[in-house]
Amino acid sequence: MAKTSSDRDPDKAPWKKTASQLVLLIIVGVLITILVGPEAGLLKDVPLGFVQIFRLALVLTIGIVVSKVLERHVFRLSVDRLGAQSATTVRYATRLILYVTIALAALGAVGVGLSSVVFGGAFLTVIVGLAGQTMFSNLIAGIWIVIFHPFRVGDSISFITWQYPILMPSFPHEAMRPIYSGRVKDINLMYTLLETVEEYPQVIPNGILVQAIIENRSKPDSHLLRVRFDVSFDYDPSALVERLEALLAREFPDQGASGPKIMVADLYPTAYSIVVILQVFGRDDDARHRVLTQAAKTMRELRPPNA
113 and 19, same structural domain? Predict the structure, then answer.
């Protein structure tokens, strides 16, 4: 039995189906526009106000249907063919062009002259004025992110911003940066979608990320981790540091000649603080767990008889 072209290349079938749907929508839209024309259309005897309302509803309906088709087929397939970063740029540009086209078509449907809207000085003034507002600032920020790539889809990032504060730890713990982390899943016209370590989605306005300090944790192969914990004066500091250094040198063998750095950071009336600084790969939580596990093992081994 002879194989069809879709059997030989199954990836082409969804694209052909999507293209045929878009062409069909365009043809239907043109035919309906002709049928409801102001002079010879079916609605020539209907008052102009009702005709404009019908055209506006028609434009919005077709725009929504085209958007759904793009989201369901083209945007999903583009990742496999173009790669994550190129697909993000294509999706963003397509969405922007589509929504601007729908907006201009909606204005034309209600009788607003498109040439005066696009080329008039009032239009530019309005756009520049609205850029400071929330919606347009997010839109412009999204364009900035797509063009200059402070991060890409698939990157693991952390960001610090004054809009999302958290409470600082209480004494005697060290201050922590109010940092939010996740893996970038998508960048759309208004928001950037992150997925946290707990696999919860976070939707962050683009305007927030443009103003934030961003750490791209997908770039470096390794980084420094600082772990601090408190120890009772019942444990000798020199013996604890020496024993913990030996354990961590075996737990983290890729530290180089100097090995992990362990210091007494602070003193309190009944305790002192130990700080461990070492080079780690991967997630901080995993390395922190290993450090604290070895610290607990050291303290158990050095436990005084009367403790």
Answer: yes
